[in-house]
């Protein structure tokens, strides 16, 4: 069995036109990456990240092991976020999120403004848990 003809023709056309198609796509993705970086710094100043050297996502380090809880809260708002636990065993990397920057600009802005209060409430809840006295 081979690849269907339609897919072969589409790939052939894309390869033949790569010089025309790739530069605007790269520019668009770079602008979205930069915007996502700015939004993270604005909405989540305690998150640590570096601009990705490749790929279409940020690997974000959270100040605490809250990625799974945060992802569940985001999912309740229709925002799917990959957690670091997908890349480790037995709950490893629950301090990390994988945030793609491929959505249109307005969708990224809406997502960050929706996620910020979710993160804030989770971080406050975690802080309150730490401050409880055990008797």
UniProtKB/TrEMBL annotation:
This is GntR family transcriptional regulator. InterPro entries: PyrdxlP-dep_Trfase (IPR015424), PyrdxlP-dep_Trfase_small (IPR015422). The lineage of its organism: Bacteria, Pseudomonadati, Pseudomonadota, Gammaproteobacteria, Enterobacterales.
């Amino acid at each position: 069995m081979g690849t269907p003809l339609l897919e072969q023709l589409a790939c052939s056309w894309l390869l033949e036109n790569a010089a025309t198609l790739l530069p605007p796509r790269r520019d668009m993705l770079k602008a979205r990456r930069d915007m996502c970086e700015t939004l993270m710094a604005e909405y989540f100043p305690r998150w640590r990240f570096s601009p990705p050297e490749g790929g279409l996502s940020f690997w974000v380090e959270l100040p605490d092991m809250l990625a799974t809880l945060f992802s569940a809260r985001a999912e309740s708002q229709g925002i799917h976020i990959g957690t670091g636990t997908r890349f480790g065993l037995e709950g490893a990397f629950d301090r990390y999120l994988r945030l793609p920057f491929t959505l249109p600009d307005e969708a990224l802005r809406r997502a960050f403004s929706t996620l910020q209060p979710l993160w804030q409430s989770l971080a406050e809840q975690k802080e309150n848990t730490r401050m409880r006295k055990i008797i």
